[in-house]
Design a protein that fits this description.
two-stranded antiparallel sheet; 95 residues; alpha+beta; two-stranded antiparallel ribbon
């Protein structure tokens, strides 16, 4: 995901970052959206919806950097869990 990042000189710019620090707030936001659509949502249902709504990321993909350049990013078979969750698919999969 692309997000703001402050470098050692104090300048804030945007960089491609990964890991739980970037994923957690996005996943929490998506769960909030699906809970709004389905008020009785429980944790198991939320997890199932998130997994069904994920795009598999095993292997390598080209991603756009904030500068407009494209960079290849690679993941191991188990690195991204179920994949990249998308809010639109999560809402579609919420019944």
């Amino acid at each position: 995901m692309v997000g703001p990042y402050q470098n050692n000189s104090g300048k804030t710019s945007y960089y491609y970052l990964g890991g739980t620090s970037m994923a957690s707030p996005h996943v929490a936001g998506i769960v909030a959206l699906i809970a709004q659509k389905k008020p009785g949502l429980n944790a198991a249902e939320a997890e199932s919806i998130l997994e069904k709504s994920a795009i598999e990321l095993a292997g390598c993909r080209m991603v756009n950097n904030p500068s407009g350049m494209r960079t290849e990013v690679c993941w191991g078979d188990d690195a991204p869990g179920a994949g990249l969750v998308t809010a639109d698919l999560a809402l579609i999969n919420t019944k």
